[in-house]
Design brief:
single chain; about 375 residues; alpha/beta; Rossmann fold; 2 domains; six-stranded mixed beta sheet; 15 strands; elongated
C-alpha cells in the first residue's frame, strides 16, 4: 500500500484501505451472492458512476446465470452529500417478479438506495437486495436493509476504487481518506528531573492524547519478545546502539494501534535529525505532523538538587551520584540542541519555564498547546 498522501484538486488524502483488503471484501460479498442466488437468475443493477469497479469484480465472480444493468444517480457535490437524489439515467429493464441486486460502491445516508428501492417496488420487483462495498453505519438513516456489506467504515470522506472527489480519484486501486490536520502531536523534552513524566501524564488526560514513551515501548517489545523487540535486544546484548529503523518501526506500530487518537505525546523520541525526519515522514502518511517540540527548561543546579532529593526515596543509583547526574544533564543538552535547531527552523520549538508548582507548569504548557 502506498505510504504517501495524494492531492486531488485542493484537498489532500492519505492511505486508508489497501487493495488487498478490498479484494477480500469483494470475495466475501461474492461468496454470499453465489450461495444465496445460484438458482435465482438475478438482475444486477450497478449504480454509476461509483460502482463500476465493484460491479465489474462482483459480476466476474458470480458463477451462475445473471443479467446486468446500470442506473446513474447523483447525490454528492464535493465532499458533502446534498441529501437530494437526482435520477440521471432511468431503469428500463422488465423486473416484475424478478430478483434484483443493487450494487453500490458506498452506502452512507442511504438516500440513493431508498430511491432505488422505491423504484423497484413500483415496478413489481419480487425481491431486491443491496450489496455495497463500503458501508457507513453511523451515517445510515433509512430502513432499507443492506444485505451484503464488504467493509464497514466510520463516517469519513473517502476516494478511490470508484469513489471520487469532484471527478478525480475513481481510478485508484486502493482507498484514501481525507487528510485531517487536527491532531495535536507533541515532542516533549525535558532534562532529567524536570518533571517531564508528570507533565506528560497531566497533558495526556487534559487533551485526550496518547503518551508514547520510547523507554516503555522498548521494554514492552523486549518483555513480550515481539519480532522488533527480539531484534532490538540482539543489538543491545552486543552493546550496540539499536538502529533508528528499529526504533521507528516500534513507534509506528504504537501509533497504528490508535488510529482514532486525537494526537500523540512523543517522549524520548526523536533523538537526532534522522529520527525526526523519519517521524515526520511517517506522520505524513497518517495525514498529520508534529505540531510542536515543547521543552521544559530548568537551571542545572535546580535539577541536580531535585534529583539528589529524589534519590533518597527512588532507589535509583543514578539519582544518588552528583557526577552521574551532571553527565546525564550534559547528554540531554547535547541531544536536545540538535533537535531544538531542527524544530526552530520550522517555528515549532517552544521552551517552557519548568520551575514552579505542577499546576503552574501545566498552565504554561497549556498556553502553548492551546495556540497550536
Amino acid at each position: 500500500m502506498s505510504n504517501s498522501f495524494i492531492k486531488l484538486h485542493d484537498l489532500h488524502f492519505v492511505p486508508f484501505i489497501s487493495e488487498n483488503e478490498i479484494v477480500k471484501a469483494i470475495d466475501k460479498v461474492s461468496d454470499g451472492l453465489n450461495h444465496d442466488l445460484k438458482d435465482k437468475k438475478p438482475l444486477f443493477i450497478a449504480v454509476l458512476n461509483g460502482a463500476f469497479m465493484f460491479a465489474s469484480e462482483i459480476i466476474k465472480r458470480f458463477d451462475y446465470e445473471c443479467e446486468v444493468s446500470f442506473v446513474k444517480l447523483a447525490s454528492y457535490s464535493g465532499t458533502e452529500t446534498t441529501h437530494e437524489v437526482k435520477e440521471l439515467v432511468g431503469l428500463d429493464q422488465e423486473i416484475s417478479g424478478r430478483t434484483v441486486v443493487i450494487l453500490e460502491d458506498i452506502v452512507d445516508t442511504g438516500n440513493t438506495v431508498e430511491v432505488l428501492a422505491k423504484m423497484l417496488e413500483e415496478k413489481g420487483c419480487s425481491d431486491y437486495k443491496i450489496a455495497t462495498l463500503f458501508y457507513k453505519p453511523e451515517a445510515y438513516t433509512k430502513e432499507v436493509a443492506i444485505t451484503y456489506t464488504g467493509i464497514e467504515i466510520e463516517n469519513r470522506f473517502i476516494v478511490g476504487y470508484g469513489l471520487d472527489y469532484n471527478g478525480l480519484g475513481r481510478n485508484l486501486t486502493q482507498v484514501y481518506q481525507l487528510k485531517s490536520n487536527n491532531m495535536t502531536n507533541l515532542v516533549l523534552f525535558g532534562p532529567p528531573g524536570a518533571g517531564k513524566g508528570t507533565q506528560a501524564e497531566v497533558l495526556k488526560q487534559k487533551y485526550d492524547l496518547v503518551h508514547i514513551s520510547t523507554g516503555d515501548v522498548f521494554r514492552y517489545n523486549i518483555k513480550n519478545a515481539t519480532e522488533l523487540g527480539t531484534l532490538a535486544k540482539s543489538y543491545m546484548d552486543k552493546g550496540q546502539l539499536v538502529p533508528d529503523e528499529v526504533t521507528i518501526n516500534m513507534l509506528n506500530a504504537e501509533v497504528d494501534k490508535k488510529p482514532n487518537a486525537k494526537g500523540f505525546i512523543f517522549d524520548g523520541f526523536p533523538r537526532n535529525e534522522a529520527q525526526a525526519d523519519s517521524l515526520a515522514k511517517f506522520l505524513e502518511t497518517k495525514g498529520t505532523e508534529v505540531r510542536a517540540m515543547v521543552a521544559l527548561e530548568v537551571d542545572d543546579e535546580v535539577l541536580v538538587q531535585r534529583l539528589l532529593e529524589r534519590g533518597k526515596t527512588s532507589g535509583r543509583p543514578d539519582d544518588a551520584d552528583e557526577g552521574v547526574i551532571r553527565n546525564r544533564i550534559k547528554i540531554y543538552y547535547d541531544e536536545t540542541a540538535i533537535l531544538k535547531d531542527y524544530y526552530q527552523k520550522q517555528d515549532k520549538y517552544f521552551g517552557i519555564d519548568g520551575v514552579g508548582g505542577v499546576d503552574e507548569i501545566t498552565q504554561r504548557l497549556s498556553n502553548v498547546i492551546d495556540t497550536l
